[in-house]
Amino acid sequence: MNTGIRINQREQENVAEVTECAPSKRRTRGRPLADASVGPDVILRAARRTFAKRGYDATSVREVARELGIDAALIAHHFGTKETLWLAVVEQIAELAEPMFDALRALRTSSLPHRERMRRAIELCVDHEFDEPDIGMFFSTAATEEGARLDRLRERIVRPYHDAMFPLVAEAVDAGAIRPVDPDVLFFMIASAIGTTVSYSHLILEFTSLPTRRDAFRQAVLDVALHILLD
């Protein structure tokens, strides 16, 4: 008789546990509906921010999911593994940069003098960095990768950027419109300096409030870049 009572009590406890868990299960079943509002573009931007801050090795898919308040399974559904998520982030950055690359290529056939072409090219670069301010930080951490990831970074971002910008720089140097410096070194210094300054603006806040005023900060970055290049 005592054994039967203990079994019944245990069954009642199990029923109570199931009852207590039931609301959580209902929320879990409903969660994908909330997750559905978070599309691939939003996921990629969150992943970009996380990869930028922590680097590839220190980032997990679960961490990206926590930032968005979604289930990690949704990220896996859209992008598979962390590796393919990272590659998708690079692809998104390349697609976002394509209008800038097109505009830079178009400047080569412009009727503007070489010096004005360079001025416009720098404006395009600065505007792009301010539109996507975490790209510079992502690139600075991603550039430390090795193997296939570094190859993809070169193929999809570095080379297209170089191929669009370098001819403008080289032609300006050849025409005497800017100082006779190595065009490759000048390109990489300008691109990295603009991207780093914008993406690490939180460090500048230690010394000036300028980054809190977007338009003024953009103008300051543009003025300094033009001074380095043209003066």
UniProtKB/TrEMBL annotation:
Tagged with keyword Transcription: yes
Ranges of residues in domain HTH tetR-type: 37-97
SUPFAM superfamilies given in the database record: Homeodomain-like, Tetracyclin repressor-like, C-terminal domain
GO molecular function: DNA-binding transcription factor activity; transcription cis-regulatory region binding
Entry keyword Cell inner membrane: no
Residue ranges: DNA binding: 60-79
Keyword field: DNA-binding, Transcription, Transcription regulation
Alphabetical list of InterPro entries matching this protein: Homeodomain-like_sf (IPR009057), HTH-type_TetR-like_transc_reg (IPR050109), HTH_TetR (IPR001647), Tet_transcr_reg_TetR-rel_C_sf (IPR036271), TetR_C (IPR011075)
Alphabetical list of Pfam families matching this protein: TetR_C_9, TetR_N
Record-linked Gene3D superfamilies: Tetracycline Repressor, domain 2
Name of the molecule in the record: Transcriptional regulator, TetR family
Species of provenance: Burkholderia ambifaria MEX-5
